[in-house]
């Protein structure tokens, strides 16, 4: 595989005002946390990382959490200054920060905008106050409108919101009402996620006790189809299984993951992928701080074999509705071809109507009209979109050591 310095940077801020009922992310309630010590440790990790793996150019930054916007304006200013000082950002860098409605007042937004952030992703989840309460969110719908108004007033134009479906007690009618309100905002990007009940969450505890009234699989599918129809009907490109954008507003940072390209990952519990090596950082706040002052704060790491990297390429690449291209595969894995490695997996998926084969010179387009990238490859069919997990699963663990012979 040809190595180049990553051009994508993920930074984790693990603090939250509270823990949502469905959340299993590495996040901690803010009260009493050593936030300033954490920011110092983060700077140390940045310096040590760049010393070990220098960056040539950073095209995308994504600050996630937790809720990064719980930082106070002085903390935010300090944090963003350290990012700008240490990393080779440029005028075209996409710089995204996750935000929670209600945690972004005008002062903080002004600091963020001045500090280089140019894209905000708000965790809205629903426009129904009852549902927001039920899933443990602390904001209400008024907070959503106020936060978006404040963001626009501060100069932010590239805004995204997350919505969730498949929530306890949610119906297609409730979802449809949320979609009406979301589309009325005329934002450039929407992310739409189905609830997953993860272990070590309040929802998992309730689910085990049979006290979580989830929609049926059929209702879940009906909600997803409803979302696809509504968003495409409003002119949004369904460019990834869970993501919709106006042309040119696709998440460039997340596309790094979907194209299986390398990225720096910093902060407590963050994952990184450098030179075919994956690592996970120490998760606890104080243990992370202590470690980062002495060394790179790694919890674990592993070298990814060529076989595993090829499986990952297919599994994450097919999440993009534009699909995977043979030329990209051969660039990441010189001497290999998609058909040569995965012919046995691809044939039944194409014959079963879940994947479409793309030919050179084909002038197709996605629903909504965006032209497909040229080149031979494969992409999900409309039926494949609905059975995505079946398609992605077909590429997990199918290669063995024989691939190296």
From TrEMBL:
Main location (coarse class): cytoplasm
Gene Ontology molecular functions: 4 iron, 4 sulfur cluster binding; coproporphyrinogen oxidase activity; metal ion binding
GO biological process, one term: porphyrin-containing compound biosynthetic process
Signal peptide from the UniProt entry: none
Entry-linked SMART domains: Elp3
Similarity annotation: Belongs to the anaerobic coproporphyrinogen-III oxidase family. HemW subfamily.
PANTHER family xrefs: COPROPORPHYRINIGEN III OXIDASE, RADICAL S-ADENOSYL METHIONINE DOMAIN-CONTAINING PROTEIN 1, MITOCHONDRIAL
UniProt function note: Probably acts as a heme chaperone, transferring heme to an unknown acceptor. Binds one molecule of heme per monomer, possibly covalently. Binds 1 [4Fe-4S] cluster. The cluster is coordinated with 3 cysteines and an exchangeable S-adenosyl-L-methionine.
Protein name stated in the entry: Heme chaperone HemW
Organism: Paenibacillus pasadenensis
